Automatic annotation (TrEMBL):
Keywords of this entry: ATP-binding, Kinase, Manganese, Nucleotide-binding, Serine/threonine-protein kinase, Transferase
Listed cofactors: Mn(2+)
Protein's UniProt name: non-specific serine/threonine protein kinase
InterPro entries xref list: NAF_dom
EC number(s) on file: 2.7.11.1
The species this protein was found in: Salvia splendens (Scarlet sage)
Length: 116
């Protein structure tokens, strides 16, 4: 049986969806990825770091409440290890839109499993 490797993750934000998408697009462009956005779904595409295959990620923004948005990030093509490196790099570039519970606050159960 093949080991389970996480190919999808999420984070939350208190910024408006348009601000989140704009930050993602800017970060992706700075990483040399092509960006395709329609409504609240964004596809990022490029060549893998080792230049041997295509790499693609799909991000979708959902409104949980009027002031809380969840962003699903899913690997669409490419190496899973490369996806994890990409995700870490993306989180560093868009840290200003990612919401984190205050220190010592447990936060909602939904948020405890969705961190960058």
């Amino acid at each position: 049986m093949q080991d389970y490797v996480k190919r999808k993750t999420r984070f939350v934000s208190r910024q408006p969806a348009k601000v989140i998408i704009s930050a993602i697009e800017e970060a992706a462009c700075s990483m040399g990825l092509n960006v395709h956005t329609r409504s609240y779904k964004t596809r990022l595409e490029g060549v893998s770091a080792n230049k041997t295959s295509q790499f693609a990620v799909v991000l979708e923004v959902y409104e949980v409440t009027p002031s809380l948005f969840m962003v699903d990030v899913c690997k669409a093509a490419g190496d899973t290890l490369e996806y994890h490196k990409f995700y870490k790099n993306l989180c560093e570039k868009i840290h200003h839109v990612i919401w984190r519970a205050k220190e010592g606050s447990p936060g909602p159960a939904l948020l405890r499993t969705m961190t960058c």
